[in-house]
């Protein structure tokens, strides 16, 4: 498989299904941001964190590839095209969302109650979680913009929404695991 095809040299790209759109199309923006999110999650998984979290992050990366493929598919095509054959892929569904919720609940059970907003940071690994959370929110906004133009399965938006929650709670868990400081945001009063 050649990496370069030269077919995008004039600013267009092909969706799964064959139709071409400008690279600035909101569909490309949506799945491109999901790809960026996936790379950021890989950065978290590469850190010195517990095996369970690494395993969950790898599952999330697989799910994001699936989600990205759904977004990259021509909405008029029911199946993804792969060479001469057609390839069906599983779709993001309620079970993927429920798995994130279970992980969030499990981590939250071992964390102190949150009483204030938290400033991102405290440790590089924690900061990677917060960066990923921000990219996830952007991916959700891009997908929502696409959804309002060309509706797709609601599970995609739900998954991205829940994933940003997961990344926030993972940041809190890793703060605790790494004995880092969780800095609360307490608004400063203006000098009188």
TrEMBL record:
Domain called Cobalamin adenosyltransferase-like: residue spans: 3-173
Catalysis: reaction(s): 2 cob(II)yrinate a,c diamide + reduced [electron-transfer flavoprotein] + 2 ATP = 2 adenosylcob(III)yrinate a,c-diamide + 2 triphosphate + oxidized [electron-transfer flavoprotein] + 3 H(+); 2 cob(II)alamin + reduced [electron-transfer flavoprotein] + 2 ATP = 2 adenosylcob(III)alamin + 2 triphosphate + oxidized [electron-transfer flavoprotein] + 3 H(+)
Enzyme Commission no: 2.5.1.17
Entry keywords, A to Z: ATP-binding, Cobalamin biosynthesis, Nucleotide-binding, Transferase
Cross-referenced InterPro entries: CblAdoTrfase-like, CblAdoTrfase-like_sf, PduO-typ
GO biological process, one term: cobalamin biosynthetic process
Keyword Amino-acid biosynthesis applies: no
UniProt GO molecular function: ATP binding; corrinoid adenosyltransferase activity
Gene3D superfamilies in the record: Cobalamin adenosyltransferase-like (1.20.1200.10)
Pathway assignment: Cofactor biosynthesis; adenosylcobalamin biosynthesis; adenosylcobalamin from cob(II)yrinate a,c-diamide: step 2/7
Domain of life from the UniProt record: Bacteria
Keyword ATP-binding: yes
Summary of subunit composition and partner proteins: Homotrimer.
Assigned protein family: Belongs to the Cob(I)alamin adenosyltransferase family.
Protein name listed in UniProt: Corrinoid adenosyltransferase
Organism: Haloflavibacter putidus
Lineage of producing organism: Bacteria, Pseudomonadati, Bacteroidota, Flavobacteriia, Flavobacteriales
